[in-house]
Amino acid sequence: MEKTQKITQYRExxxxxxxxxxxxxxxxxxxxVKKQLIRSSENEIGGCNENVIEEKTAEVSNLLDMxxxxxxxxxxxxxxxxxxxxxxxxLKHDNEQFRVMYREGIKALPFIHYLLKAT
Length: 119
Fold this sequence. Notes:
49% of the residues lie in helices and 16% in strands. By secondary structure, it is an alpha+beta fold. Strands 1-2-3 form a three-stranded antiparallel beta sheet, with no helix packed on it.
């Protein structure tokens, strides 16, 4: 029972972090990405340009959106997010060690995406 409470706490912390202004505001996210790119490219002569920052910010934003769409799950294993641009995640397996979720891919492709969240 204690492990279940810890898992619930970790998941709530993740949900709270994903909903923070630094990760939901596009300009704040762009600034975070820019700082990381500058820090990681200090040894390079050219540094990073605005196009790279825009591209990486879009990638990070898309990843965060996918994580947000997978976070809030009701009793039936369906997401309760109202504003997600991604298909809904369905719960396949959930225990103390990990959670496996899946969703259908793009309509033109026969793929299914899986998400494994380990604790």
